[in-house]
Structures are given as C-alpha cells and as structure tokens.
Design brief:
There is one protein chain. By secondary structure, this protein is an alpha/beta fold. It is built from 20 helices and 23 strands. Strands 9-3-2-13-21-20 form a 6-stranded mixed sheet. A hairpin with a 6-residue loop joins strand 10 and strand 11. Helix 8 crosses helix 9. The longest helix is centred in the last third of the chain and has 20 residues. This is FAD-dependent oxidoreductase. Pfam families: FAD_binding_2 (PF00890).
C-alpha cells in the first residue's frame, strides 16, 4: 500500500512550489509516474510494498542482491544503444560483405533503384516510370524462369469488381476498423488507409489493357453469394469478390505483362542480379544505392539512386531469421524451425538490418503457422469447435484464422473435434467468406459436399474418407462421440457443450463466448456429423509476412525510429501489414497489399520531394521540459519539427490528407 503520510507531505511541498495550483491525490499519482523514470536510477523511488524491518530505501532500490531475491528489479541486459540487428540477429545476421571499389565492374544511375521484380517491385517501378521517373529494377531470378507467387488479388471497390461483376461497394471505414481489430491496432494506419481507399484503383490499373474476354476469365471468389446472404457476421464483414487469375492469364503472366508496361514507360530491368549490399553513409542513416552480384559471372554492379526500394520478398528459406522475427510461430511449434514455401532468403531485410534498420515490432506473422483452424470436409466452416477434452473454447465465428485460430493454437494436445447436425447445407452456404473458407458456393461445390455427407451415412465407427478426411455420421450424438473414439469424460463434456450451444441458439444470446446466435445452427436433428482432426501449429507456412518496420510512406525506420534517408521497403520485405499474423479478412489480401502499396509508393517517389520526410537529425526544434519533467512543444503553439505534429506520418502535408492515404485521388 502507498505511504499516505509521505504522499501528503510531498503534495504540500509541490503545491507550495506551484503557487495556487491544487494537486489532488490522483494528479499526484499520475505525475509520480513521470518522475519515477528519472528518480529510479538514483535510488529515489521505493516500491509500493511495505519495507521489511531493517531495510532502508537506498538498500531496497540500490542492492542488486535484494532485487534479485525479491524480483523487484531486473539485471541490466547490456543491449541499450545497440541496433535491433545486433540484438535480434546475434549469431545469424552476420556482417556486411566487404566489396572494394576496384571489384565493381560498372556503375549505373537512376532516380529510383528497385530491388525485386515481383508484385510489389514491379508495381513500384511501373507506376514511377509512367509518371516520369527514371527507374532501374534488379531481380535475383533469371528472366527466362521468372515466376510470381499466388493467384489472388484482394482489393476493395474496383470497377472490375463493382461495375463488371456486381459485388456491392464496401465501406472503407468498416474495412479499416475491422482490419485494425485483426491486427490488435498494430497495423500501420497510413498503409491500411492507402489499401482501403486505393486498392480498387490499383487493380483496375493492373488489368487496364486486358481484353474483354480476359477480364471475363478473372474469377470473383465467393461470388455470387446465396440469396439472403448476410455479409456481416458478428463484427466482421465477408469481403467477397477477390480477383483470381485462373484463366488464360495466370499470375506470373500478369506480372510479366506489368513488367513489359514498365519497360515501355522507360524502366530498365536487370535479371539474375541479387542485391548483396546497400551503399550508405558511415552511420547507416542514408542510403544512396545498392550493389548486386551477377549470378552467372560473379561481377559486381553498383546502382546509385535517390531512392532504393527493397521489394525482395520474405524470409521463408532463412530459418534462423524466421525463428527470430516470427517468434510466436516458433514457440507455438515448440521450437520447430520455421520455413515457408516462398523460397526467399530474407537477404533484403538482412541488408537493411545490418545498417541499423528495425523489423516488425510484434509477434511476427506468416500464412498459417501462427493459428489453428480445423478444416472439415466443408473447409473452414464455423460449426461447433471442441478441444481434445470435448470443451468449446472460443467464438468460432470471431475473426477467422487470426483471432479464433490463435485461441485454438493454444489449446491442449494434438487434436480437436467439429460437430454439426443435418442442416449442413445451411451451415456451408452461410459461413464467413475469407481465408480457409470455400472459394465457391455454386451448385458444383454443393454437390461435392453432399457426396461427402451421403458417403458418411451408415459408415459407422469406420467413418468415411471420400473427401480425403475421415468423416463420421450417426443417428444419435452419443453414437457419434463413440465413433470418434472419445473417452467417457470427453464424451460427457461434448454432450454438455452441445446442450449449451443449443440453449444459446434458442435464447438468442451466447453468453459463453459471445457468438452471433444467427450463426449458431442448432445441433438437434440427425443424422449428426463429426470430424476429429489433428492439431498442428508452428513450423511451416506459405510465406512470412513480417518485414522491415516502415513509416506510412514506406520509409525503412532505423535508430530512434527515424527514417533511413533514401531507403524504402514494400511487399513482404515490409512490415506494417500483418503485424500479428496473416488475417482472414479477405482472400488475396497479401498480394493485394503488394500491388496497391507498390502502386502508391511508385507514385510517391515519382511526384513528391520525399526528402522532406527525413531530416537526418537536422532541423529538429528543441523539446522543452516543463517543471514537472514532462515534455512539451516549444513556445508558440503547435510547435515545429518534432515538437508538434511531424511532417511525416503523424501530420498531414500541405493540402490536407497524407499523401496516398485518405480519400483516393
């Protein structure tokens, strides 16, 4: 408890110094937190717990032995002043390669140097070149075997989506708020705003020269929806209509077409040229170029530019880096090495970390290993989910892979159970559209699922694997539990969980986990279906989605969280998009982010004086300290430089909304 007598004495002293300003106990405690930071180092602050007999204030705060024995403090780690690369990358990041000047075979120059010709890099280069900038793109893959990952481009409100396909226009405000819920408020707000407001524009730009027949071949996922479909499931929206490249123009061909348009606009592409080292000043606060090493000849080339964009992909094949940056996934897999199918080695991120850049400050995300979603023969349907002990453990409809999936990843053991009744078709057709849900709800998809259900009827304790997964069916719930091999205690828990589920549906409120009762289909009439599945988390995924920490203008951040002048990151080399893990708000949102943010970055670099958002420590007004130690702006109102709203992400440049964010141009 607080020493009230001492508090009163200090209140009187401070009140006397401040003249007639009253200081309440609440105000004192709030101010004490500010003073404590400086006072603790001098041994002036004692913890709230009463001192034991014979202990002095200086002894409690100053004795390392006392702190160790009571847990009142922590030993110094010795990392203060180090870069994130020095701390996080200890043992695996390594040093920059030493490349002598006479080893560089040639030097080329352009306004913008882009490292990587994938979704993000090509979009950046093409948009910048179309707007008049000189652009060079270096790509590690050979040109004749170049390939791009993925098939789907998630976006909002393109002309293709709204006018051609007929998908209703979405609220960008709802999207941004829902997305931040997925990301626990850690998503870079300006990047999210750019995607919400301009991703449709970017998609239309990407396919602007496609023939009418080619546009007809593009597939809108989860469209059309069933009659009466409610897009809102609890707090989340089903964002149907992601554009899938499944026709005569596949995704690799689509990216190559965009590369050709960039070349037509004047951009130069050099393939088989992996970047190996940034060209930078001594303290790593400014980047002026990049050095590549030819994959065939081993020759070095230096490319100089006012802006260097790292769009080199993720960390998928670098397990040491993956384990460190995506630590949640590493720990969920009980320290099984993380790896991804992308094949990218994280070299772009490593180059920046070696000069002081920071990476995503969060748990680190990837596509899959951070979450557990039980995929039945109906895929990620939100029926009743039970853990290995037959207990319901979450709101199954709450947020798809990221939110409810994270709950499942922490449940005991290696298995889970899914249960539903005979109304499987209503369940199947009314689930939340997004990752791990079916991509089509048409007659063919319904017929496929019906064949799985029909095959399971009468299969008894053997079950049926027509779908590729063992599905069980029984006339009673007790039999179903037996067929799935449940022990008596687990069976009792399961029956009780189903009873509570049905009661919540009937009452119209789920007080247990808060699920929208309109999505709680009753489990009352047979035949009943069950799917026991193994629970595996951690280790592997499709691609990692955590990269370098960036500002809203995609500037890579270094010491003091200041932008490194001239250095930008986009795509999977960039953080800020999926800081807590890849979410389920929309199919194809990863590639959609790469395309849109590459598009807006190219525009920014070609049209803005981007040096105005990076000061290299110059021009920062003094931050004056008030008498109580709290920082405030310089005299004169809103302040200048760091004292007031910064010219970068926090404040708007001349003309209103931040460039590329807010309302679309």
């Amino acid at each position: 408890m607080e020493n009230h007598h001492e508090i009163e004495k200090l209140r009187e002293t401070l009140a006397g110094k401040r003249g007639r300003i009253a200081l309440s106990r609440r105000s004192f405690l709030r101010g004490a937190g500010v003073m404590a930071a400086g006072a603790a180092a001098a041994g002036m602050v004692v913890g709230c717990s009463p001192q034991t007999e014979g202990a002095s204030a200086s002894g409690a705060a100053g004795s390392g032995e006392a702190m160790a024995s009571t847990g009142a403090g922590a030993a110094a780690t010795g990392n203060e002043g180090k870069t994130m690369g020095e701390v996080l990358g200890a043992g695996w990041l390594g040093e920059e390669p030493e490349i002598a000047e006479d080893e560089i075979a040639s030097v080329q120059e352009a306004d913008i140097i882009v490292c990587g010709a994938g979704h993000a890099g090509t979009a950046t280069a093409r948009r910048a070149a179309e707007l008049g900038a000189s652009v060079i793109v270096v790509e590690m893959q050979p040109e004749d075997t170049f390939s791009a990952l993925g098939n789907d481009i998630g976006h909002l409100n393109s002309s293709w989506q709204v006018d051609r396909v007929g998908v209703p226009e979405y609220s960008v405000v709802d999207f941004m708020n829902e997305y931040q819920m997925y990301g626990a408020g850690r998503v870079q707000p300006t990047l999210l705003s750019q995607f919400a407001n301009r991703s449709g524009e970017a998609l239309d730009w990407f396919i602007e020269d496609y023939t009418e027949a080619e546009k007809d071949e593009l597939i809108p996922l989860n469209w059309p929806v069933v009659e009466g479909y409610n897009y809102k499931k609890g707090p989340f929206t089903s964002y149907v209509g992601t554009c899938q490249f499944g026709g005569s123009v596949g995704m690799t061909d689509a990216v190559k077409r965009s590369q050709d348009k960039a070349k037509t606009a004047g951009a130069q592409f050099f393939f088989g040229q992996p970047a190996v080292r940034l060209v930078h000043n001594e303290d790593g606060t400014e980047v002026t170029g990049v050095i590549t090493k030819d994959s065939s000849t081993g020759e070095y080339t230096q490319y100089n530019g006012r802006a260097v964009v790292l769009a080199c992909g993720d960390i998928g094949s670098n397990s040491a880096m993956y384990n460190a940056i995506c630590r949640e996934n590493y720990e969920l897999g009980e320290y099984k090495d993380c790896s991804a199918m992308s094949g990218r080695d994280g070299s772009g991120i490593a180059m920046a970390m070696r000069i002081g850049a920071k990476v995503e400050i969060a748990t680190g995300g990837d596509m899959g290993s951070h979450a557990f979603i039980p995929l039945s023969p109906m895929e990620g349907v939100e029926c009743l989910w039970l853990n290995k002990y037959g207990e319901r453990y979450c709101n199954e409809a709450f947020g798809g892979p990221l939110l409810s999936g994270c709950a499942g990843a922490r449940e005991p053991g290696d298995r889970a159970y899914l249960v539903w009744g005979n109304d499987w078709q209503e369940v199947f057709l009314n689930q939340l559209a997004g990752h791990l849900a079916p991509k089509e709800w048409d007659d063919e998809a319904i017929a496929n699922v019906k064949s799985y259900m029909d095959a399971a009827v009468g299969s008894g304790p053997e079950g049926d694997d027509t779908s590729g997964k063992f599905l069980y069916c029984a006339d009673t719930l007790e039999e179903l539990c037996d067929y799935m091999g449940m022990e008596e205690g687990v069976k009792a828990n399961t029956l009780a969980a189903i009873e509570r589920w049905n009661a919540a549906h009937d009452a119209g409120v789920d007080t247990e986990f808060g699920r929208d009762p309109e999505t709680m289909w009753p489990i009352k009439d047979g035949p009943f279906y069950g799917y026991p599945c193994s629970k595996r988390v951690g280790g592997g995924s499709l691609v990692a989605t955590s990269g370098l920490l960036v500002t809203g203008r995609q500037q890579v951040q270094g010491r003091g969280f200041e932008p490194i002048k001239g250095l930008f990151a986009c795509g999977n080399t960039s953080g800020g998009r999926f800081p807590m893990g890849y979410n389920g708000i929309m199919n194809g949102v990863s590639i959609g982010m790469c395309l849109c943010l590459g598009y807006t970055l190219g525009e920014f670099l070609a049209t803005e004086d981007f040096d105005r958002y990076c000061t290299l420590g110059a021009g920062n007004a003094e931050i004056k300290q008030s008498e109580n130690g709290m920082a405030g702006p310089p005299m004169g109102g809103e302040g200048e430089g760091d004292g007031g709203a910064p010219a970068g992400d926090g404040g708007a440049p001349e003309g209103g909304a931040p460039d590329g964010g807010g309302a679309p141009a």
